[in-house]
Input
Amino acid sequence: QVQLMESGGGLVQPGGSLSVSCTASGNIGSINVMAWYRQAPGKQRELVAAIASGGKTNYADSVKGRFTLSRDNAENTVYLQMNSLKPEDTAVYYCGAFGLREYWGQGTQVTVSS
Output
């Protein structure tokens, strides 16, 4: 089993910055990829960014150049730095860990509004 603990999120004005983090515990050796997804009201959950165990990252086109995903292997934590936030970035952000099974955090709200 893998447990995911998310932190960060909140309310920010358009153009502002925010970060979220996700710390994994448990059978972390089984994890190959960690990622952030988001789900806005009335929409499907979508991939925001992912990072593989080797460090390769992948971003949704909508966040490229604005979001940065990084990983601290010693702390088993991934960080999503979100800059130049837009109202359409408003969503519940979920951390996911993927290996033989997939695991999800409980989600953290990010609201971009003036």
Observations:
- The CA atoms of residues 23 and 74 lie 11 Å apart.
- The chain is about 0% helix and 60% strand.
